[in-house]
Write the structure tokens for this entry.
Amino acid sequence: MPDLSFWGELIGFGLAIGCSPLHVALLLLLLLGPDPLRRGGWLVAAWLLTSLVELLLLLSLGHGLVLSMERGTSHRTGLDLLAAGGLLALGLNELLHRPPEATPPDWTQRLDGFCRLSLPPLLALSTLFEVATPDDLFLYAKASGNLLASGLDRPHEVLAGLVFSLSTSVLLLLPLLGVVLLGQERALPLLQRIKDWIYRRGDWIVGVLSLLLAGYFGWQGIGGLVAG
């Protein structure tokens, strides 16, 4: 079995993916609206399933191409440096092109429209955004690369994939569990405050997190160049 550093990185990548202001705010809006547990529960279930399927697909691709993800190999070093550049560009764009403080980001204005959709198209759009955002793709690729490099057998690889997928869902599971335990009426004031805070700080969250990840991946990539 891999050591604690492996699990720490894997869970860290999952939590970084889960820090999606758009998806968390969308879930909060569903929990604040009608039929919160059914609609919110399906959103969380779709997120969890999509996360697991995307990771397993990347692992299958890696095994099929016999990619080596050991430190210093061209595949891993190239992925680290590509991720660092992409996340650096994303982080700077989010921080340098933020709207004025009193103006909500553009993505917040589209969420109300998403919430009015019926459940199937809502889940389809949520899944599309989850798999198509560049920062999430890099993190999924990095997590699958770490799993490839660990040399786990298939049962342990699937277990690690489940742990990773669960870690991507923690920030969605917590408000859903809050409504389950407290009820919508009692949880509503807290959910509303969290939603308002995300609306004000969502761009900062994405920007700062992207820059931190860019620094980490850049450090990993430079270490790979030295090792190679």
Observations:
- The chain has a mean pLDDT of 82.
- Residues 184-227 form the longest helix (44 residues).
- The chain is about 85% helix and 0% strand.
- Residues 4-227 form one domain.
